[in-house]
Amino acid sequence: MLLKRHNISRQQAFRAVGDDLAYQVDNQAVIQILKAAQADLNEIMLFVGNSGCMQIFTGAIEQLSALEENQSADGQWVNVSNPRFDLQLNQQAITESWVTRKPTKDGFVSSLELLDEHGKHILQIFGQRSEGQPEQNQWHQQLAELPPIGVSHE
Q: Is 3.40.1570.10 the CATH number for 2-144?
């Protein structure tokens, strides 16, 4: 609603706010965050959509492959598989990756958001939570391991 009111894109909003609300990370961050969630058995939410439909997966990652054997002529693929969900993500389609923090009545909700060359969402990843509950500490810590572009993280 705010974006429409000010006639700006989500990408423009990310760039306009302070680092406490949004900062850009390396496009490889998606692999790091998915591996961390899988290793820690952390339940996450994956939002994948287009102009007509949104698919949401909630749960722990059972199978993840983001290895060189997934290399093809049109990109390196990250595959997330569960019995009721299968995601195939072409990493070459990711132009920008952002860690975002949005204020809600339940505290801040943080996500990793992947954008394409047009600034449109490819994928949003959140820690699993229900309305009325605060964000998972584990998810917050996993995102904190993703350094802003241009900042070394030791």
A: yes
Query: Is a pLDDT exceeding 50 seen at residue 153?
Result: no
- Which distant-in-sequence residues (6+ apart) come within 8 Å of 38 by Cβ? 60, 61, 64
**C-alpha separations of 126 from 5, 30, 31, 107 in Å:** 25, 12, 14, 14
Q: In what order do the strands lie in the sheet with 121-127?
A: 22-25, 96-104, 107-115, 121-127, 44-49, 54-59
Tell me: the pLDDT tens digits for 122-138?
Answer: 999 999 998 889 899 99
Q: Residue 68 pLDDT > 60, yes or no?
A: no
Residue extents of the structural domains in the chain = 2-144
Cα–Cα separations (whole angstroms), residue 32 to 6, 37, 64, 93, 134: 34, 9, 11, 17, 23
Structure tokens at 104: 């809600």
Write out pLDDT tens, residues 82-102.
Answer: 888 899 999 999 999 999 999
